[in-house]
Amino acid sequence: MRICIFCIVILTSVAGLSQNQPSEVDKIDFGVRFGLSLSDLVTSSNTVQPRATFLIGIHANYKINSIWSIQPELLYLRKGESVRTTASTNTTKIENRILLNYIEMPILAKYKFIQDLHLEAGPYFSSLVAAKQEDIEGENFQSNSIKNDISSFDMGFAFGASYVTEWNFFVGLRYTRGFIDVSENQNNFTESYHTQLQLYVGYSF
What we know:
This is Outer membrane protein beta-barrel domain-containing protein. This protein is mainly beta. The chain is built from 1 helix and 9 strands.
């Protein structure tokens, strides 16, 4: 909840800046986006077990000058991992999923590298919305809430690049890495950190 309030304050502040400085350089753009992502939880074993999922969100881009801009975003996205194995006694497929849903706010500095191509980097802050573990073995399915075992807050760093067309459509690629241990209960989960690769498209207006 505190993350959501903070996001609204930031977006409102950026909108206020654009009204106070209405020149062509100091203008604000709002936008929407949708994307696909591969998420994983990095542990000491360094195994890669990505979870494929989606993200949606909005942004406000405030242009400082013709090259630099600040872009806060408000995203709903899913993270976690999906571990697939085969039972040692037979050929039964086993899948263990960690499903973590977040409201996330990146605050990015954007640099216009060449015409229409932007580089972006900055911190992100996340608030946990839902957390569950799903275990699938053959036709057997079990789902349990693990919200008490997962940290309610996450933060990390994001960097990437985006391309903006003359019609205000854009496409981007971004990588994020968490700095906070996701596991709240070390008895049930080992020390883990979020990583995510995002591919997204959107429109600015």
